[in-house]
Amino acid sequence: FSNVRVNPPVGGHRLDQAAALVRASGVDLEPVLRPFPLAPAEAPEVVARFLSKDDMKSRSFAALIPGSSTGSTEKRWPPASYSELGCQLASRYKLSVLVLPGLGETGLARAVADATDPAAEMVPEWCLEEISSLLSRARLVVGGDTGLTHLANTMGATKADLLETRLPIPQGAVAVDLADGRRVFAPPDSDPDAVRQYIAERE
């Protein structure tokens, strides 16, 4: 599609965005998002007990997911930003704040929870059935491009996806930022202004 510009739906699921690219080539395609094969209505007892604590009984909660895969740390929002958001959710919107660690991310989740005032609570490293049950009950889920955030989507949770930085620059290329916020990659030693002019003349 080097000579065709496609505007996929903003804020939609990545399957809808990918389908828009396919339809641009003339293929009639509608993605099907299948429900995750877990039943959150049958909440494990451990989740029910966790949510029945005195400080959470009468409050809705927001779930923060600060991690990402170890090979994609560029997708992480800064821990301090999650903590600041947690403070705002607690003070302005009276939500309890839970921080969910991914596999091996207990330290990261603990740091976010400890820096949130009033203190957030870190969720144990539960199995998928327990985590899905918890996420299905959240008032809001905030996380990066990572598995637990996608799991929240299949549970029907209201969620916000956050990306701290853009895609890493491919090897042997140079990144050029456009005026509208887009980023393109060009051959090495390219003049950024010449790249911008080239794109502007062809759109």
Give a verbal description of the structure.
The protein is 34% helix and 13% strand. By secondary structure, it is α/β, with parallel strands linked by helices. The strands form 2 sheets. A 5-stranded parallel β-sheet has the order 3-2-1-4-5, sandwiched between helices. Helix 3 crosses helix 4. The protein is elongated.
Short description:
The protein is α/β, with parallel strands linked by helices and 203 residues long.
Strand content: 5-15%
**Whole-angstrom Rg:** 20 Å
Q: Largest beta sheet: what is the strand line-up? A: 3-2-1-4-5
Number of strands: 7
Q: Average the pLDDT over all residues and give the rounded result.
A: 80
What are its keywords?
7 helices; elongated; alpha/beta; two-stranded antiparallel ribbon; 203 residues; five-stranded parallel beta sheet
Question: Would you spell out the secondary-structure blueprint of this structure?
Answer:
Blueprint lengths: L13 H10 L21 H7 L9 E5 L13 H15 L2 E4 L6 H9 L6 E2 L5 H9 L3 E4 L3 H8 L4 E3 L12 E4 L5 E4 L5 H11 L1
Parallel strand pairs: 1-2, 1-4, 2-3, 4-5
Antiparallel strand pairs: 6-7
